[in-house]
Design goal:
Radius of gyration: 24 Å
Strand content: under 5%
Largest sheet: none
Number of domains: 2
Number of strands: 0
Structural class: mainly alpha
Length: 267
């Protein structure tokens, strides 16, 4: 077994010379995976990289993240999904696999080296793509969230505006959502679709719940601001009439966003 472990170290170091790994700990992990000494069944170079990632080695994390992004591209192309969904899936899997889990090491440490690491990562991201795509299909049209039952009451002017500019408002909101960075979309999805609490999100990102709450509040503010800008551009604020319309529509926009995203994050 000693000779096999020494050969494994040589192979791993040749493949990943920049990584810094506790070799005694890695050898012990290999012995657990192959107590009979049958290391030929383990892809030692791939396992070495995953082990280094789980230990937090910066170079390993960079290499593994690059592999994840590449495999996500292949998976997204095969599934013919939008780039924004691919980026969101990468962010979710990145957090799931590379972030510590409380007192436990990152989930990438569960990789046993029985198959290619890149294939293992592609399976993980493909599953997330399927989940995200299904969640997206279940979502109600944005128009319904944005302009239905928004408290216009019996005001005929606002009722007319709602009907006339329904499409523009929905398009602006949809574009603003699409333009959010992947992490921001992931945070919203955690809260709105997965039903995670502020404490849950803080635990995932290893930050205080107040920090997670501030993140979500800022995302909401950014979304509102960008939607207003896009709405103004779509209506053309160079005329007094258009500017007036935008102001009236904006009076309901905060309510619309809160309705779509749920209640503001508690601090």
């Amino acid at each position: 077994m000693s000779e096999a472990l020494d050969a494994a170290v040589t192979t791993a170091r040749e493949a990943w010379p920049a990584l810094r790994v506790d070799l005694d700990a890695w050898k012990a992990a290999l012995e657990e995976l192959a107590p009979d000494g049958a290391l030929a069944d383990i892809l030692v170079a791939d396992h070495y990289l995953a082990f280094a990632c789980a230990a937090g080695d910066p170079a390993a994390l960079v290499a593994c993240d690059a592999m994840l992004v590449r495999e996500a591209g292949f998976a997204a192309d095969g599934a013919r999904v939008h780039a924004s969904l691919r980026d969101e899936a990468v962010q979710v899997v990145r957090t799931q696999l590379l972030a510590p889990r409380g007192d436990r090491p990152p989930a990438i440490g569960d990789y046993a080296g029985r198959g290619l690491l890149r294939s293992w990562l592609r399976v993980c991201v493909s599953r997330e793509l399927v989940r995200l795509a299904k969640a997206q299909q279940r979502s109600e049209p944005l128009e319904e969230h944005l302009v239905a039952d928004q408290g216009f009451g019996d005001d005929p002017v606002l009722e007319e505006l709602k009907a006339r500019y329904r499409s523009e408002l929905a398009d602006a909101f949809r574009t603003a959502l699409t333009e959010l960075p992947p992490r921001d979309r992931t945070l919203l999805r955690y809260q709105l679709i997965d039903g995670l609490t502020i404490d849950d999100i803080g635990s995932i990102y290893r930050v205080h719940r107040a920090t997670a709450a501030r993140w979500l509040a800022k995302i909401r503010d950014d979304l509102v601001g960008r939607t207003r800008t896009l709405m103004a551009e779509a209506l053309g604020v160079d005329t007094a009439e258009a500017a007036s319309i935008v102001r009236l529509v904006q009076s309901q926009l905060d309510v619309s966003v809160v309705r779509h995203l749920g209640p503001p994050a508690k601090r």
